[in-house]
């Protein structure tokens, strides 16, 4: 069969002939791959730069952690790969499969799960979102941030605020459910002043942060209390696109009712991961099939993977390859 292969030493994946994967355990199924999203996660793991990768792979491997597949009986499902998914066939976990509604296309079904899990796990389980909450999505113009805007509104948020660098993308957030947007321009004083006004008017209850770095420092400084009672804030770090480290004042931690936590692989208990497959993803697929959850995709052939691997895709749009 044909597949994209990452070879030791890094570089771009190559489209080549490989052996068909074999089932190794009872909890595996061989499936025909229909569509696979190209995500930062997969690129990071493939290069060894993601925190879940201890080092560069020592042998050639097929990238891609999940995708849309056909089972032997023709059932169309989303599945998590045992073998790499960027191939004509892959082995997938029997207990990490979600059926796909007929009204949902392969590309959207392949692109949604990473964004949905990246948004919903933080909102539902880490921040424990409640009806009436005010939610700030820091870094809302990317694929996961846009999904987070929509899910925050669906889960009952009274007010949703989104930040981002691209003004055109920011304006599009309003149609997805955002009430307010703040541009990240590098002008710290302006960013902080805009957020202070919003926080004073409608205190922020939840922050889902996909950027970290300097904007996280500014947001936390706005949340800082003045010695009086403060409203509880659940701050969830879900990404670090702007940097892995911040300076955090101890005074902030002592002056506000702040819960600071992270959402990502390794931070989720087993029961929450199970709910992602039994509750969160089935619900998200249904919403998308009904046109109530939107995500833009660009499709391309897996055979062009070397050219596509570093392709600059417009913000809010996910690249999906078709074997």
How would you describe this protein?
The structure is a single chain. With 323 residues, the protein is of the alpha/beta class. The chain has 2 domains: 2-99 and 293-322, Quinone Oxidoreductase, Chain A, domain 1 (Alpha-Beta Complex), CATH 3.90.180.10; 115-262, Rossmann fold. The chain is built from 9 helices and 14 strands. The protein has helices spanning 40-47, 106-126, 143-154, 167-176, 188-201, 213-223, 250-255, 270-289, 305-308, and strands at residues 2-5, 14-17, 28-37, 66-70, 76-81, 89-99, 134-138, 159-164, 180-183, 206-209, 233-237, 258-262, 296-301, 317-322. The strands form 3 sheets. Strands 3, 4, 5, 6, 13 and 14 form a 6-stranded mixed sheet that branches. Strand 4 (66-70) and strand 5 form a beta hairpin. Helix 2 (106-126) packs across helix 8 (270-289) and helix 5 (188-201) packs across helix 6. The longest helix has 21 residues, at 106-126. The model has no long low-confidence stretch (mean pLDDT 93).
């Amino acid at each position: 069969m044909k597949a994209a292969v990452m070879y030791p030493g890094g570089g771009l994946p190559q489209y080549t002939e490989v052996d068909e994967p074999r089932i190794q355990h009872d909890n595996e199924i061989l499936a025909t791959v229909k569509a696979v999203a190209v995500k930062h996660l997969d690129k990071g793991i493939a290069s060894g730069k993601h925190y879940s990768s201890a080092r560069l792979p020592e042998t050639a491997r097929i990238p891609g952690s999940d995708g849309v597949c056909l089972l032997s009986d023709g059932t169309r499902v989303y599945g998590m790969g045992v073998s790499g998914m960027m191939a004509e066939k892959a082995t997938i976990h029997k207990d990490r499969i979600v059926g796909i509604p007929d009204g949902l296309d392969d590309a959207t079904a392949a692109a949604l799960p990473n964004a949905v899990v990246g948004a919903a796990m933080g909102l539902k389980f880490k921040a424990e979102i409640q009806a009436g909450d005010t939610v700030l999505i820091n870094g809302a113009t990317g694929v996961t941030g846009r999904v987070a805007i929509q899910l925050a509104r669906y889960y009952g948020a009274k007010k949703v605020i989104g930040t981002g660098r691209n003004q055109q993308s920011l304006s599009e957030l309003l149609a997805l459910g955002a009430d307010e947007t703040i541009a990240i321009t590098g002008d710290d004083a302006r960013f902080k002043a805009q957020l202070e006004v919003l926080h004073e008017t409608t205190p922020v209850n939840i922050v889902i942060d996909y950027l970290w770095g300097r904007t996280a420092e500014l947001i936390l400084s706005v949340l800082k209390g003045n010695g009086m009672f403060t409203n509880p804030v659940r701050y969830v770090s879900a990404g670090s696109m702007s940097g892995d480290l911040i300076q955090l004042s101890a005074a902030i931690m002592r002056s506000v009712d702040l819960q600071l936590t992270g959402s990502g692989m390794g931070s989720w208990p087993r029961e929450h991961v199970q709910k992602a497959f039994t509750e969160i993803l089935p619900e998200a697929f249904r919403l998308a099939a009904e046109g109530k959850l939107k995500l833009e995709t660009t499709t391309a052939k897996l055979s062009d993977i070397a050219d596509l691997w570093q392709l600059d895709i417009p913000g809010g749009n996910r690249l999906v390859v078709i074997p």
